[in-house]
Amino acid sequence: QVQLVESGGGLVQAGGSLRLSCAASGRTVIKSSMHWFRQAPGKEREFVAGINWSVGTTTYADSVKGRFTISRDSANSSVYLQMNSLKPEDTAVYYCNTFSYWGQGTQVTVSS
């Protein structure tokens, strides 16, 4: 079993920054890749960023390239999402994911 807990969401003005954290506990063998997804009201959940735990290679959705950075910290089994130059379109609940496990989500609201 794996537990994922997100934190760091909040309300920020357009152009601002937030740093999301995801703390993982439990099994570690299934976290070879970890991801951030987001879901806005009335919309489907969409992929935001992913990272290979061992190698550190990253993948981003086109909508966030150049603005968001995903990273990991093996020492405390955490994955982060640094979000810069935030836009109102980034408003959503952000979820941490690995394999079939999901966190509870953290709300990010970007005002214009």
3D architecture notes:
The N and C termini lie far apart (40 Å). It contains no helices and 11 strands. It is globular. Strands 2, 4, 5, 6, 9, 10 and 11 form a 7-stranded mixed sheet that branches. Strands 1-3-8-7 form a 4-stranded antiparallel sheet, with no helix packed on it. The protein has strands spanning 2-7, 10-13, 18-26, 33-39, 46-52, 58-60, 68-73, 78-83, 92-98, 101-102, 106-111. It is an all-beta fold. A hairpin with a 5-residue loop joins strand 5 and strand 6.
What is the molecular shape? globular
Order of helical and strand elements = EEEEEEEEEEE
**What class would the helix/strand composition place it in?**
mainly beta
Poorly predicted regions are none
Helical residues, percent = under 10%
Radius of gyration: 13 Å
**What is the averaged pLDDT score?**
93
Distance between the termini: 40 Å
Q: Helix tally?
A: 0
Number of strands: 11
Summarize the biggest pleated sheet.
Answer: 7 strands, mixed
**Percent strand:** over 45%
